């Protein structure tokens, strides 16, 4: 009799506990969509807030400076006491020089590394090498900047005659090293997702392993590879500390990579450190430069999305 009463008591307690658990689960299920929706809305509102701030302050700048002079001017002399000049082309030229050098360094080595990891490396080697590359991507950019200034530049001065202490070549190479892990990792992921049946079919037809990698796997993974390259270019365009430390602060509208330059991000850093007072034309110029940089990165991201979608439809 006692054991029966104990069983009935434990059964009732279990039913009560189950009922409470069910109520808790129902509350969580009802609350989670609202919480997740709130998180999404906060992200969207934050993005719109940043964009509207850039647009508003940029319009304030263009009330003082002609948009034609800004877009097509070839001299950027905002601190000139007599007649400040705000032609954005020298800053764009400096940014593009660094970015192009970075692409020349990162794309061949990044894709080659991805092909090795995907098609040639053993599983053990892949587990060791890939995390090392991904750790390289986590190195603070200011460390890369000092590396470019104190190691890469003196080394290049022994090879390239006339190379100045501040130049476009050294930060371009180091930015390429910085974005290389991004290209390697994303491209390797894209190649690894290619079905093995495609590799086996090509090998069965007499193709070599290299031919399979270049003529089968690479085209099949092209959407992911191109997207990784475009995203890496966006990262290179927006790089700040490396170009600020090793590039210099002399905006020039030319193709010379051995002389001092200034990129859009480096100019923003220069003014933000206190070289201009609040409400001045120079102060508002950082928003106009920031908005130009935003347009560049937005176009690159849209291009990456389009290319990825386009090539995915083909293959």
TrEMBL record:
Keywords: Cell membrane, Membrane, Phosphate transport, Transmembrane, Transmembrane helix, Transport
Alphabetical list of Gene3D superfamilies matching this protein: MetI-like
Domain ABC transmembrane type-1 residues, every copy: 92-304
Lipid bilayer topology: Multi-pass membrane protein
Regions that span the bilayer: 35-56, 85-111, 132-156, 168-191, 212-233, 282-303
Cellular compartments annotated: Cell membrane; Membrane
Chief location of this protein within or outside the cell: membrane
Function text: Part of the binding-protein-dependent transport system for phosphate; probably responsible for the translocation of the substrate across the membrane.
NCBIfam families, sorted: phosphate_pstC
Family designation: Belongs to the binding-protein-dependent transport system permease family. CysTW subfamily.
Protein name, UniProt field: Phosphate transport system permease protein
Species of origin: Lysinibacillus irui
Gene coding for it: pstC
């Amino acid at each position: 009799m006692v054991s029966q009463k104990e069983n009935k008591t434990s059964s009732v307690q279990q039913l009560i506990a189950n009922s409470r658990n069910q109520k808790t689960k129902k509350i969580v299920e009802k609350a989670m969509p609202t919480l997740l929706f709130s998180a999404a809305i906060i992200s969207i509102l934050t993005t719109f807030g940043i964009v509207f701030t850039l647009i508003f302050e940029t319009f304030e700048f263009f009330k003082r400076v002609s948009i034609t002079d800004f877009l097509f001017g070839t001299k950027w002399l905002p601190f000139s006491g007599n007649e400040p000049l705000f032609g954005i082309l020298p800053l764009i030229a400096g940014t593009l020089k660094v970015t192009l050098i970075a692409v020349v360094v990162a794309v061949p080595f990044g894709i080659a590394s991805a092909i090795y990891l995907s098609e040639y490396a053993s599983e053990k080697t892949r587990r060791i090498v890939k995390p090392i590359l991904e750790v390289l991507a986590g190195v603070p950019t200011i460390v890369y900047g000092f590396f470019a200034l104190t190691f890469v530049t003196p080394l290049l001065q022994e090879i390239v005659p006339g190379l100045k202490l501040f130049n476009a070549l050294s930060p371009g190479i180091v930015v390429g090293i910085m974005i290389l892990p991004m290209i390697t990792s994303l491209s390797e992921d894209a190649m690894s997702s290619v079905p093995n049946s495609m590799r086996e079919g090509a090998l069965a037809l007499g193709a070599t392993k290299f031919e399979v990698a270049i003529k089968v796997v690479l085209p099949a993974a092209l959407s992911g590879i191109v997207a990784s390259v475009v995203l890496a270019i966006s990262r290179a365009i927006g790089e700040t500390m490396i170009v600020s430390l090793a590039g210099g602060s002399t905006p020039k509208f030319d193709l010379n990579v051995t002389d001092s330059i200034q990129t859009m991000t480096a100019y923003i850093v220069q003014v933000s450190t206190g070289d201009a007072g609040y409400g001045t034309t120079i102060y508002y110029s950082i928003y106009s430069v920031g908005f130009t940089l935003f347009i560049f990165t937005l176009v690159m991201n849209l291009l990456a999305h389009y290319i990825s979608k386009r090539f995915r439809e083909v293959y």
